[in-house]
Amino acid sequence: xxxxxxxxxxxxxxxxxxxxxxxxxxxxxxxxxxxxxxxxxxxxxxxxxxxxxxxxxxxxxxxxxxxxxxxxxxxxxxxxxxxxxxxxxxxxxxxxxxxxxxxxxxxxxxxxxxxxxxxxxxxxxxxxxxxxxxxxxxxxxxxxxxxxxxxxxxxxxxxxxxxxxxxxxxxxxxxxxxxxxxxxxxxxxxxxxxxxxxxxxxxxxxxxxxxxxxxxxxxxxxxxxxxxxxxxxxxxxxxxxxxxxxxxxxxxxxxxxxxxxxxxxxxxxxxxxxxxxxxxxxxxxxxxxxxxxxxxxxxxxxxxxxxxxxxxxxxxxxxxxxxxxxxxxxxxxxxxxxxxx
Length: 341
Known about the structure:
By secondary structure, the protein is α/β, with parallel strands linked by helices. The protein folds into two domains: about 5-200 and about 240-265, NAD(P)-binding Rossmann-like Domain (Rossmann fold, 3-Layer(aba) Sandwich), CATH 3.40.50; about 210-235 and about 270-305 and about 320-340, UDP-galactose 4-epimerase, domain 1. The chain is built from ten helices and 14 strands. It has helices at about 30-40, 80-90, 105-110, 110-130, 165-185, 210-220, 240-255, 270-280, 310-315, 325-340, and strands at about 5, 20-25, 45-55, 70-75, 95, 135-140, 190-195, 200, 225-230, 235, 240, 260-265, 270, 290. The protein has an eight-stranded mixed beta sheet, with helices on both faces. Strands 8-11 form a two-stranded parallel ribbon. Strand 2, helix 1 and strand 3 form a beta-alpha-beta unit. It is globular, with a radius of gyration of 20 Å. About 45% of the residues are buried.
């Protein structure tokens, strides 16, 4: 069975491809980070962007770039379709972002999360080998791999022990080391990254900042009583703007060392309370905050801070967006979503 194409921009592997253009394939292109990565890569000269997504993901996040990318719909758990997709596109760069990324869903269906995240990446790597391709491949891990960190571990560098606390984190450890194994055993050009918390426009619910913004926007629109329900506000996390993060992904494949693993994060922590206070200050109506025990996570780590020294030294990456701008953009995004819902 062929791989369905939803929309076609400049051909990626066809006769219309510009000579010497780099063909970049983004799995999970319609998602939060995937769509921002497409935006970024389209600003780079000589790069053609292809993407693959599940049909159920929709194209809302890609509205501004649909005419400039080649978008394919496929279930990457089907190896034959992965093989056909890669054979058609013959990418020079593969950014593997597709994954089941919800911790809550991972707890509800740990087997599904593990099977999906490991199988999809395994299929990509096996198809690359079967077709004799030599792309640069970015494997996206997660800061969740570090899990049960202690104050003595701060800031967290790449040598910090991995002590995952949930099935999603275990799946990302597996993806991380699967990438390393295929680099060592098959000499594939695999670069691994462990991104810390990143926020920005288009992020869905299930995370503190977009959940706050969704509620504020609904309250402002008169769709919810003026009460914002929250979980644990004491935890401190290392937040980056998603647009800085995906710029880091591009730099990782351009300058990162094959086989290496890199943390990407700001190097600063902010409490969830601070994030909430900043967002409430941007609100347009009075809002009361109430604690909801159902929203508290039982295994919350008090503080997480990233040490991205290795990544900065190898790639020159530095964040560009300040936190105030990011929070304004997330809230404005949710106001727009609420107005058009």
